[in-house]
């Protein structure tokens, strides 16, 4: 039995072949990004590049799929690669241990990819990635803030400028306008309007964010395949 038999039953051979040929670069493999990466692999995305500068911490155990008691202190991107290869040894998973920033942006040719997934927390780095991704030929999907929320049923998808009540989106828009670094085109975001008022982050919420990002990629491939 093929590992992807149930996927192919649902989307068909032609769409699955497109998924196997699809190239995705994912920035951030923590709470949101890790769940997204695993969902992409299990669905059949054939080529995934993981980018993250951070290491696994004990405080990540409550919500990050990459975090285990046995890998604390290890680089997240490489640990995520090992997890994905344990699921699918023949997967094409590459890793960059580093951050996307003004100093490193030139090292990434975003136009080489079909999809760019933004799961970055840093506002300056996130703003730059959004700007450059929307200038490339890749399709961008971005995660807004998943912290301070407990209700995964409130997570939704909207165009960036239509996101309401999200402090991260607000901070991004303010910085973009102040520095005149705006997105070159519209893009879809995963976000939640929930206002819990307390600090912290939970697995059900970040997991939902990550899986919805993966779902946007899958839906877009299915839509494009059907239209062709």
What does this structure look like?
With 228 residues, this protein is an alpha/beta fold. It has one domain: Rossmann fold (3-Layer(aba) Sandwich). Helix content is 40%, strand content 15%. The protein is built from seven helices and seven strands; from the N terminus they run ααβαβαββαββαβα. The chain has helices at 5-11, 13-21, 31-43, 76-87, 123-135, 167-179, 203-227, and strands at residues 23-27, 47-52, 92-97, 115-118, 139-143, 156-159, 188-191. Strands 3-2-1-4-5-7-6 form a seven-stranded mixed beta sheet, sandwiched between helices. Helix 2 (13-21) packs across helix 7 and helix 3 runs parallel beside helix 4. It is globular, with a radius of gyration of 17 Å. The two termini are 29 Å apart.
Strand composition percent? 5-15%
Largest β sheet strand count, sense and barrel closure: 7 strands, mixed
CATH class: Alpha Beta
How large is the radius of gyration? 17 Å
Shape: globular
For the largest sheet, list the strands in their spatial order: 3-2-1-4-5-7-6
> Between the first and last Cα atoms, what is the distance in angstroms?
29 Å
Number of helices: 7
| Average pLDDT figure | 96
Within CATH, the superfamily carries the name NAD(P)-binding Rossmann-like Domain
Number of separate strands: 7
Question: What's the helix-strand series?
Answer: HHEHEHEEHEEHEH
């Amino acid at each position: 039995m093929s590992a992807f038999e149930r996927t192919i039953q649902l989307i068909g051979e032609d769409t699955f072949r497109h998924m196997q040929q699809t190239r995705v670069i994912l920035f951030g493999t923590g709470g949101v990004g890790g769940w997204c990466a695993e969902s992409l692999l299990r669905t059949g995305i054939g080529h995934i590049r993981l980018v993250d500068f951070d290491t696994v911490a004990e405080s990540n155990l409550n919500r990050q799929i990459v975090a285990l008691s046995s890998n604390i202190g290890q680089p997240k991107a490489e640990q995520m690669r090992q997890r994905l290869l344990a699921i699918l040894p023949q997967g094409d998973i590459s890793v960059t241990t580093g951050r996307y920033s003004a100093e490193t942006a030139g090292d990434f040719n975003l136009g080489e990819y079909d999809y760019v997934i933004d799961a970055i927390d840093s506002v300056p780095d996130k703003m730059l990635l959004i700007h450059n991704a929307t200038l490339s030929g890749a399709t961008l999907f971005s995660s807004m803030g998943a912290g301070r929320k407990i209700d995964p049923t409130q997570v939704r998808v909207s165009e960036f400028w239509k996101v309401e009540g999200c402090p991260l989106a607000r901070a991004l828009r303010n910085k973009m306008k102040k520095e005149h670094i705006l997105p070159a085109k519209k893009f879809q975001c995963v976000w939640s309007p929930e206002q819990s008022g307390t600090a912290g982050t939970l697995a059900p919420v970040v997991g939902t964010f990550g899986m919805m990002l993966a779902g946007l990629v899958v839906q877009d491939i299915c839509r494009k395949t059907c239209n062709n």
